[in-house]
Amino acid sequence: MEIRNLLKYVKKNLPIFLIIIMAAAIRVIPHPPNFAPIGGLALFSGAYLKDKRAFVIPLGAMIISDLIIGLHDTMIYVYVSFGLIVIIGSYLRKNQHWENILGATLISSILFFVITNFGVWASSEMYAHTASGLRQAYVMAIPFFRNTVLGDVVYSLSFFYGYRLIMLMDKNLALSKARK
User: Fold this and answer.
1) pLDDT tens for residues 117-131?
2) Which CATH architecture group holds 3-179?
3) What's this model's pTM, rounded to 2 decimal places?
């Protein structure tokens, strides 16, 4: 790839790289358990991107941060959850009213809870591999669910409305330049 094409590629994709790095950094710095940006980012990416970038952004942030935080046996369940949340986000493309965003966020949080805690039960020896053990895995995870929901709501609304604010400011900037 020649330099000109490389620069064009970097310029086109720089916002994506910055978002991935920002989300990974937020996930790595100390924060309350399960209060992280990836669920909101996955929902937002699904809503705004129609190609593989919708999956690359949240999963790229996960890969980078998991390499720093450490790998674990339930990663596949976490990654599948976020991939499904991207798909849920794609249903918001045509109607991003706040009720729809909030509803999709809550569905995403529940989906993450169900899949990842099933993964903990299935791939570890923490709980008996019985119906009672599965129930215990879900019950023990309830305290973490609160932070999952709070984090997903805060970050989803931040991504969706932050983006709208940036677009509004950019539009106003373009209009003010056109008037001069």
Assistant:
1) 999 999 999 999 999
2) Orthogonal Bundle (1.10)
3) 0.87
